[in-house]
Amino acid sequence: MFANKIHEKAHETLKSGEIEKAIALYSKALELSQGHPDIISDRAVAYLHSNNKELCYTDFELALELEPNRAYRYSSFAFAMNHFGDIEGAIVKYQRAVELDPDDAVAHNNLGLLLEQKGYKDEAQAKFERADSLSKLEDGLLDMVDEMNGKSEEPTTESADNKETSIEPEREEQATVSSEIKKVLTQKETFKEFLQFVKNGFKLKK
Asked: What is the pTM of this model?
């Protein structure tokens, strides 16, 4: 989700490789949505692409101040620290990320890679194993979605004159709820969003 239209435009501009223009757009987006952590964090990423360590760190620090209990903020900052060669700092940030979100396979894996670089082989192996088990769990759930999609749909009930029968309001509401649940469980992208929703403590991303 984007905070506003300019935020979205900045994101697309950064993807196209126009880094300085994207930074300017992120700054403009912040004027409309002051103190929005997602815009600040995204601008930090843009500063990373421009190799501006000081401003990159400043924005990531601010995003952390605004959302100190969100694991993703620490993982993002850790990635930037590693990019700029601060492995020790990145390890600390990744450690905090997995404390806040023990089910983040990517953070566990990245932490393992950095621990391995520093010679902490046992600790690194433990992180790799944790990342592998979490990845297998998500893959298993996604395989379950594929299996559910492979099942044939139940035939629709029609009246004798081949016209659709009406549904009572209560049953219509139940049918709507059931269809939404089925949508979550049978569409991979929606299901991934649901998994992230659960990992976020059943909180929607701002």
From this structure: 0.68
